[in-house]
Amino acid sequence: MSVEVNRATVPCGVCGAAVSELRRGRCWGCYTRWVESRPVGRGASCTVCQEKRRAQLKLVELKGVSLPFCHGCAAQMLRMTEVPDTIDEIRHALRRDRRDGDRREGEKVDHRIFPRERRVGERRGPSREGYADTDPSMRLSEFDEVIIELADTDMEEVEQTQVRARPAAPPAPPVND
Q1: Which parts of 5-142 fold into alpha helices (H)?
Q2: Fewer Cβ close by (within 10 Å): the C or N end of the chain?
Q3: Are 57 and 69 in contact, with CB atoms under 8 Å apart?
Q4: Domain map of the chain by residue range?
């Protein structure tokens, strides 16, 4: 999809700048702005990790096809020296570094006192739908100011730490030769 020439003679189709390489008829600056402005479809999720927050998703052109990726997976994929040919291979290459399973195998022993798997269940916790019946405008009755009076016998003397200057070392005696 890109056109490359030896000298800056090709005009950008958007801004008209003379550049040596065009991507979809645009210079790299215009192409980057165009890519960043493309919206991700409703209900889309990351091709690799299934992230669904639209603010985290962007379309990435991969082998002529635009696919939704989250920013993290897109950054990892763009850093790859060789991008795999299939989506499953990309998913496997990117998930390899994630914490899908326990990686302590063979001679790697879990030395914790109470060994247990820490990554179980939903990471984001229960949904807030269970609290839908609470009324945020509900107010508690007003209470008078609470005053606690202490007598001298209620006070307990506590030893306090004191910070003092370090004593100066005595001057060294003069050396007689």
Answers
A1: 28-37, 71-79, 87-95
A2: C
A3: yes
A4: 1-37, 40-98
- Residue 173 DSSP symbol: P
pTM, entire model: 0.46
Q: Which of 29, 4, 5, 3 is nearest to 16 (CA)?
A: 29
Pairing mode, if any, of strands 21-23 and 57-62? unpaired
* Residue 31: C-alpha distances to residues 36, 121, 133, 159 (Å): 9, 41, 49, 70
Q: What is the per-residue pLDDT across 1-38, written as a single tens digit (0 to 9) for each?
A: 566 656 668 888 888 888 888 888 888 888 888 888 88
Contact between 34 and 26 (Cβ < 8 Å): yes
Could you count the other beta carbons within 10 Å of the beta carbon of residue 76?
16
CA contacts within 13 A on the Cβ side of 127: 3
CB 68 within 8 A of CB 53: no
The conformation of residue 26, written as its DSSP 8-state character, comes to: B
- Pick the closest to residue 58 from 43, 31, 36, 76 (CA basis): 36
Rounded to 5 degrees, what angle do the CA atoms 86, 60, 7 make? 105
What DSSP designation does 141 have? P
